[in-house]
Amino acid sequence: MDTATRTELEAAAFRRLVEHLRERTDVQNIDLMNLAGFCRNCLSKWYRAAAEEKGIPLADPDAREIIYGMPYKEWQAKYQQEATAAQKAQFAAANPGHG
């Protein structure tokens, strides 16, 4: 497979992942972190870092809006739930020093 085709396929898969996460607003970021070790915010940081590697300045709020499909504060107000004590404990155990 040539590099251009691989890049196109990777980009398509990334777009589908972002679309899926936008549709699954019931899945909280802490659930993603606890199960997969990354969340929507991680994706937005990786997106911003990739843009910066290409010399494209991108602020964190703008990168988050690309991933969430809306301003982050709006997503939080609509969909974010308070993490349970069990979720927080699982996160703390798996990510010492993070948070």
TrEMBL record:
- This chain's source organism reads Belnapia mucosa
Q: Which Gene3D superfamilies match?
A: SMc04008-like
Question: Which residue ranges does the record assign to the SMc04008-like domain?
Answer: 27-92
InterPro entries assigned to the protein according to its UniProt record, in alphabetical order: SMc04008-like_domain, SMc04008-like_sf
Return the protein name: DUF1244 domain-containing protein
Question: Which Pfam family name is an example for this entry?
Answer: DUF1244
